[in-house]
Specification:
Mean pLDDT: 79
Oligomer: single chain
Shape: globular
Structural class: alpha+beta
Distance between the termini: 21 Å
Radius of gyration: 17 Å
Strand content: 25-35%
Strand order of the largest sheet: 2-1-6-9
Number of strands: 12
Helix content: 10-25%
Number of helices: 3
Order of helices and strands: EEEHEEEHEEEEEHE
Length: about 190
């Protein structure tokens, strides 16, 4: 089954799961990248976020002054129009904005849209541990371990890099992101 995206919770531009997707979206030419910690519960301290913003402003100042061709070229090959922290009010799923995504068991590939929906809702309300039962292999699996096609990531914060010219983040971008989010990052591409 397919799950849709594109509702906003808390912060303009936050992309999160919003239910079953039934219409055909027109593919946008705009491409965004979301860098998310592999730990869905991770949330950095205010000091860490301030350090990120300070370093980002310092490193991007050279772009604005013309030392590098194209704003954001130090972060993403091909440049980017905007980078910011996406901090929604509740945990979200960052995912492809156009066309939704499929959800299946990572162990047996059984479809798990219903189980994912229920696990995500419980987690958002603070009522669950994100574990769901797979009807295909009878294993309990954490919703962040489910297989998402295209890739998606659960979390409480993301680095949003908007309107990128390419999909490869630079070593500098990875370093900045790891300082804020930890060494295990998930990079999610989103159209729209």
């Amino acid at each position: 089954g397919w799950v849709g995206t594109s509702s906003t919770i808390g912060v303009p531009g936050s992309h999160c799961w919003s239910g079953y997707h039934s219409d055909k979206n027109v593919m946008s030419k705009r491409l965004n990248l979301f860098l998310v910690s592999s730990d869905p519960d991770f949330f950095p301290s205010e000091e860490m976020m301030d350090n990120f913003r300070t370093r980002l402003a310092k490193d991007l100042l050279a772009d604005v002054l013309g030392d590098v061709v194209g704003t954001g070229a130090r972060l993403v090959e091909g440049g980017a129009a905007q980078i910011r922290l996406d901090v929604p009010a509740t945990p979200v799923v960052w995912s492809n904005k156009s066309g939704g995504f499929s959800v299946s068991c990572a162990d047996c590939a059984a479809p798990m849209v219903k189980e994912f929906s229920e696990g995500l809702a419980a987690w958002r309300l603070g009522l669950g541990d994100r574990l769901v039962d797979c009807g295909g292999c009878n294993k309990r699996i954490s919703i962040e371990r489910l297989r998402f096609r295209p890739p998606a990531a659960l979390g409480r914060i993301a680095i949003a890099i908007r309107d990128v010219g390419g999909t490869a983040i630079t070593p500098m971008c990875r370093e900045l992101a790891e300082e804020l989010l930890g060494p295990e990052l998930i990079v999610v591409m989103s159209r729209g």
